[in-house]
């Protein structure tokens, strides 16, 4: 792939990361982001960097098999990103953020999945054409071991695929798409739906 294409990809990914970070989705350096360059290579955020000030220098090229192609320390959650790229060659970008809604809703009551029904914004998730349907967002237990998390994802990938994402309990959300724009749309859509559900539950419990 030409250097110019990699440069353009890195700039587009930086713009997306900063967009989410500027809206509070990456508190205290939380979150990580990647995009596919070709069949074998991705760009992924370095570990522990302030996402509001991300620059292309904070994006590290590596192979989907885990070989780092430059100096630097890739995200602590690299293993999960790479597992997704290996699992589905149609995945073009993977975005992970922390929000109050995704953190709390994945832990209250220890759910295995969250169900969304009746929301117009369900149509932001590809393949959904009406609010008169239900979409499930799987919840995986958190682990600091990326092999454990990747194995849990593999076991439930068929459930996560139509949602283009999943939650990690008490931690955050992963969302993906065929390209960066669709991954961003899915992540924005899920975060809107999660914020609605959290507020709905708060309002209903006050009555
Ligand atoms: C400070 S947030 C805890 C780590 C985390 O969950 C995350 O998303 C950021 O990790 P990274 O190594 O990608 O910076
Ligand atoms: Zn995280």
Pick out the low-confidence regions: none
Q: β content, as a range? A: 15-25%
Q: Output the helix-strand order.
A: HEEEHEHEEHHEEH
Task: Decide which structural class fits the backbone.
Answer: alpha+beta
Task: Assign an overall shape.
Answer: globular
Main sheet summary: 8 strands, mixed
Number of strands: 8
What ligand molecules are bound, each kind once? the ligand CSCCC(=O)C(=O)COP(=O)(O)O, zinc ion
Q: Give the overall average pLDDT.
A: 97
The oligomeric state of the chains shown is: single chain
Can you name the CATH architecture? Answer: 3-Layer(aba) Sandwich
How would you name the CATH homologous superfamily?
Class II aldolase/adducin N-terminal domain
Distance between the termini: 58 Å
- Using the CA coordinates, give the radius of gyration: 16 Å
Helical fraction equals: 25-40%
CATH class annotation: Alpha Beta
**Number of helical regions:** 6
Q: How many domains, as an integer?
A: 1
Give, in spatial order, the strands making up the sheet with the most strands: 3-2-1-4-8-7-6-5
Return the CATH topology. Answer: L-fuculose-1-phosphate Aldolase
